[in-house]
Fold this protein.
Amino acid sequence: MCLAIPGKIGEILQKDGVRTGRVLFGGIVREACLDFVPEAKVGDYVMVHVGFAISAVDREEAERTYALLESMGVLSEELASGAEGTRSS
Amino acid sequence: MKQESPNAPVGFSCPLPLPAGRRVLLGHGSGGKLSAELLQEVFLPALGNPVLDRMEDQAVVSLNGMRLAMTTDSFVVKPVFFKGGDIGSLAVHGTINDLAMGAARPLWMSVAFILEEGLQLDVLRRVVASMQAAADKAGVQIVTGDTKVVEKGSADGLYINTTGIGLVREGISLSASQARPGDAIIVSGMVGDHGIAILAEREGLKFETDVRSDSAALHELVGTLLEATQQVRCLRDPTRGGLSSTLNEIAGSSRVGMELEETSIPVREEVRGACEMLGLDPLYVANEGKLVAIVAAEAAERALGALRSHELGRAAQIIGHVTEAHPRMVVMRTVFGTTRIVDMLAGDQLPRIC
Amino acid sequence: MKYMDEYRDAKIARGLAAEIRRRSTRPWVLMEICGGQTHTLVRYGIDELLGNSVELVHGPGCPVCVTPLEMIDRANALARRLEVTLVSYGDMLRVPGSETDLFHIKAEGGDVRIVYSPTDAVELARKEPERQVVFFAIGFETTAPAHAMAVLQAERLGLTNFSLLVSHVLVPPAIRMLLQSPRNRVQGFIAPGHVCTVVGVGEYEELAREFRVPIVVGGFEPVDLLEAIRLLVCQLEEGRAEVENSYARSVQYAGNRAAQAAVERVFEVADRKWRGVGEIGASGLRLKGHYAVFDAERVFGLSDVRAEEPSECISAEVLLGHKKPMDCGAFGTRCTPEKPLGAPMVSTEGACAAYYQYKRHLVTL
């Protein structure tokens, strides 16, 4: 129900009393309302849904989780390619 | 809701009978299933003949031992001026490309304008200048024309209709019905540029982008390709409906299947960004300066090299091959190695929020 | 694109899939709720990667699909009015009502326009004061804050020609209804990550506790969904029934307070009819009385309309996960995206449409 994609805030301005960001999505720029993410600043990533930022991406959390996922990817490949019984869970 | 005839055969190649009272929709012009429906239900039954029925992008007729290619096209793009072109240059390039896809050297064009009352003459001057520049660059002469004016509100500024005539290269015959299992599927460059360039300027969807329409005349690129190899089965330019519609058309005409590799389909980063934001798939977005070539397997590398040697084909890629499996269906191996269908859309692709 | 591309990594995806297959001792029945998640699962062939380790059933999380017939009919009626500019998200245009859809009405001369954001609709109303601009405001909890802001912005600008036709639905009541059904087969849920980004995780904890069912808040990229599935399988194998948040880069426990505040200011909970499912109590939103002047139903005095779905459509069964699209006798034959019989074939997010578009080569039609 919720196509929201991550974009990087390039610039913040006031537009008709609304805190607005110029957000970069892989090479295109579209304005998004930042009223729901008052703490977000230039350089931060936000999740944008229909022109509204609904969250600021938690960088540390993302890094932490991703590191775990990556190790899962590596581990499973080792398990798959190794002989049976090389490791237990 | 539409009614279905009880005797209508099932399956996705079945043309649905048009219920009485239905109207023309925007989707009928989108190059997908609805467009195909309109052809099958309205135009071909009334106008069909052996040449028309072949339904290539151009008609090849013989005269005194010469093969002439002829094509017609109409241009209704809005906005009239966009990054990378305008309706005028688009009209010239589009006409040339239809001829080039039949291995024809484009020679002459006619041009007919339908102008909306109130159109600024400056706009018209710019468009016409752009047409002449494009024609000059391609060595094509605009030899005849016509003008009509319609009442305010009827024509979105201006519409252009063209006819193009070219001379078919000797010894080669291209057709969408010639694809054979094993053939390579090559695309001449990155897909989706034109559609995104246009969309970026549409009211309600506007966004900033450097993406320019890829509108270009492809006859020289085709020439380069055909010099390198004559083992080309088919050439098509994936305009409205995108790469997917073109591939589905060829698969349907040739009654073959196709298998694509998702990782090899070239897409510009900005186009991808725009598609992600709007929930669109680049495979369905229009192109105006790209071609798809179906080439015998043994000639694939040579063909690729030839395309890449030309400035309009630098980003050419082999994106898949023709197969005898799942005839008339285009299937894609995803980045994960799983498979999914690349279907022909019914009408236009719509931005989604879901 | 950062925070997106890396969650489409094939190696990690295969690794997660292998881990899921390794841990799973039976085909657990899992449901993802959001249409966007369905789209990803089908488009990337996640079911292929997982084989028999889980059975994926798709939930009713497609606002386009579940918008009731009556609401489509109302939108159509408004679009037919000469003074009205009906503004909508793109995917609503092809949804058939009782007789027609917005695309056809546009063809007949109705002023129907597509926007990406409700802000564009407000802008339109500002630029064309002679038009009555009605915005077709559909969506789940994710989109409600944006719609609330549109109303507040219109109020701030003093617009008198702007209104919303509201058809908002809420996820938890639908899940509750599903779980209460004696025919429910779903053993674990992937909660919709962008809904939770707005509303937080609390409501799902209640559901997990009450029905003893594991729920993992999941994202929308294939790696996100595989990770959510992995966590669900672990819980099920271990006999746990908790709520876990695997989309913490976007979802905080309490959700987005500012967004919630905007919604609370402008909307209130109401009963809503879900297309293909029926009425679910307190499962939707409507504009508060204070904002009546922005409520298209009140501004235009739209009366109640009864509408019937074609009897062959089993969308209720599909939306609630009791049946799969391929189980339907009409799938791909009498019911296709061009001539849909019911809701899930209508939108590209609907389960039936997704299967039709990406997977029907696996089905003998």
